TrEMBL record:
<feature type="binding site">
    <location>
        <position position="114"/>
    </location>
    <ligand>
        <name>S-adenosyl-L-methionine</name>
    </ligand>
</feature>
<dbReference type="InterPro" id="IPR023397">
    <property type="entry name" value="SAM-dep_MeTrfase_MraW_recog"/>
</dbReference>
<dbReference type="GO" id="GO:0070475">
    <property type="term" value="P:rRNA base methylation"/>
</dbReference>
<feature type="binding site">
    <location>
        <position position="93"/>
    </location>
    <ligand>
        <name>S-adenosyl-L-methionine</name>
    </ligand>
</feature>
<feature type="binding site">
    <location>
        <position position="121"/>
    </location>
    <ligand>
        <name>S-adenosyl-L-methionine</name>
    </ligand>
</feature>
<dbReference type="GO" id="GO:0005737">
    <property type="term" value="C:cytoplasm"/>
</dbReference>
<comment type="similarity">
    <text>Belongs to the methyltransferase superfamily. RsmH family.</text>
</comment>
<feature type="binding site">
    <location>
        <position position="66"/>
    </location>
    <ligand>
        <name>S-adenosyl-L-methionine</name>
    </ligand>
</feature>
<dbReference type="InterPro" id="IPR002903">
    <property type="entry name" value="RsmH"/>
</dbReference>
<keyword id="KW-0963">Cytoplasm</keyword>
<keyword id="KW-0489">Methyltransferase</keyword>
<comment type="function">
    <text>Specifically methylates the N4 position of cytidine in position 1402 (C1402) of 16S rRNA.</text>
</comment>
<keyword id="KW-0808">Transferase</keyword>
<dbReference type="Pfam" id="PF01795">
    <property type="entry name" value="Methyltransf_5"/>
</dbReference>
<feature type="binding site">
    <location>
        <begin position="47"/>
        <end position="49"/>
    </location>
    <ligand>
        <name>S-adenosyl-L-methionine</name>
    </ligand>
</feature>
<dbReference type="GO" id="GO:0071424">
    <property type="term" value="F:rRNA (cytosine-N4-)-methyltransferase activity"/>
</dbReference>
<feature type="compositionally biased region" description="Basic and acidic residues">
    <location>
        <begin position="318"/>
        <end position="331"/>
    </location>
</feature>
Amino acid sequence: MDTPTNPDARGAAERHVPVLLERCLELLAPALEVEGAVMVDSTLGMGGHTEGVLRRFPHVRVVGLDRDPQAIALASERLAPFGDRFTGVHAVYDEIRDVLADLSIPAVQGVLMDLGVSSLQLDEVERGFSYAQDAPLDMRMDATTGPTAADVLNTYEERDLARVLRTYGEERFAPRIARAIVRARATAPLARTGELVDLVRAAIPAAARATGGHPAKRTFQALRIEVNHELDALARALPESVEALAVGGRIVVEAYQSLEDRMVKQAFALGASVSAPPDLPVVPDTHQPYLRLVTRGAEEADEAELARNPRSQSVRLRAAERLRTTPDHLRPAPRRAA
């Protein structure tokens, strides 16, 4: 069934407009048109991108990963009409090869990664991802495990708080904000996003607050990344995802902030470059590029996409195609013992 409808899943469909869906489908098409193709949606969310793939390519199977059990449940309901063409798995995207091994899938033809916080997490006020509404300081993408943003704010040393804000939020007033947090928690532990917003606003000079958007935006980004170890997971996930690709397969990544996009750019550039020393007269096959860049630099949303989906404003999309197997000296070590 190419175009199933599922009234019970309208909630997820209405709450989530997938970013650059048509462009993602266009970039993936040469790989997914192969009979028996399998794609991994590494950041399933509410299933918008996966639904687009399943509708457009009626022979494709999609394995959807997400660290958020609520996302898996909502997406699975939305995608139930596609039957066994969709498999949802509760996992972080750096576990991609482990998941595929468990499913007896040796390689896939496509990988899609839509990074950052999902529509589900932003829209669920009680998750604490948004600085626009007061909520508990949680920010966990998997709310079943791990420390919360409140734990970070109330237990980290001042210098470590400043490092997190500076490194992950690129916040130039990180020391001032960290000092204000430590001073406030000496009276009572921080528990609500509203408290944090007020602290950040007071710590940033008035002139700086007048430009650059909401003054707490960078602090909330930094805390979210720290709580969920996002950049550590992404650093592992990018090479793992390339290794999961069959020759001719394609990987498409959508990033929403400069730290993520820089990591994607570097990972793709590594695979698309000759790895031999520059003075070698002949480049051995084992040092030839194993990726081909499909996009020229990072693509951004056009006016039509921005009008349709305001959350696409900061997206940077990159894609690459697998040309050959990765040379041994660049291949990531396996995550599991043999």
